[in-house]
Amino acid sequence: MITVTNVTKTYKTGDTDFNALNDVSIEIRSGEFVAILGPSGSGKSTLMHLIGGLDKPTSGSIEIDDHNLGKMNDSQLARYRNEKVGFVFQFFNLLQGTNSLNNVMLPLIYAKKRVNRKSVASNILQEVGLEKKLKNKPNQLSGGEQQRVSIARALVNNPDIILADEPTGNLDSKTGHTIFELLRTLNKKGKTVVLVTHDNSLAEKADRIIRVADGKILA
């Protein structure tokens, strides 16, 4: 369960305070596929970053399965981000100088897990249909293939939550549909999926839509 209670996030721009989020409260149940829908600048990505432990709220609380992110120190937050949450971003964020296998292995290295990293990463890449692309670098892959590598990287530590920030925004519609269906498949396997998007047609495919505008929840 993801519980966001009365969360406000304020940024300073010079002498001016800007509320990216203003007294936001939501609940996302374990195993849900939820879309956070809103235009650019609405606060939806800020909300995802807070849930993912990439930033801290100015006020209010965020609890994941009764663990308060605001009470975690930097080391605990780093572990939470690496083990509990998988991140998928619009621009893939892959290491350009290395291949698919090494990109997917990276979270395992950070987690210092005593596993056969190559075997685990290879199996995950096979799950997303890239078993023949293990040695390819990002510039040797299509946009859809790069996004599948980033999804494999997000999955490699077997997180409970997948946070996807505009994961189809840099792809054509056909490839975007394929990526969405992959996220849906992961959800059916028990993952909680939070999809951040400005695309109403994509959001409507989720189980539930949380509409955001001007830092507030509309519906």
Would you give an account of this structure?
With 219 residues, this protein is an alpha/beta fold. It has helices spanning 44-51, 74-83, 100-111, 117-127, 143-155, 173-188, 200-203, and strands spanning 2-13, 16-28, 33-37, 59-64, 67-68, 85-89, 161-165, 192-197, 208-213, 216-217. It contains seven helices and ten strands. It has a six-stranded mixed β-sheet with strand order 6-7-8-3-9-10, with helices on both faces. A four-stranded antiparallel β-sheet has the order 2-1-4-5, with helices on one face. The longest helix is centred in the last third of the chain and has 16 residues, at 173-188.
What is the string of SSEs from the N terminus onward?
A: EEEHEEHEHHHEHEHEE
Task: Give the radius of gyration.
Answer: 17 Å
The shape is: globular
Structural class: alpha/beta
Please report the distance between the alpha carbons of the first and last residues. 19 Å
Widest sheet, order of strands = 6-7-8-3-9-10
Low-confidence stretches: none
Annotation field: number of helices: 7
**Averaged pLDDT:** 90
Biggest beta sheet summary: 6 strands, mixed
Total E-strand runs? 10
Q: What portion of residues is helical?
A: 25-40%
Strand content: 25-35%
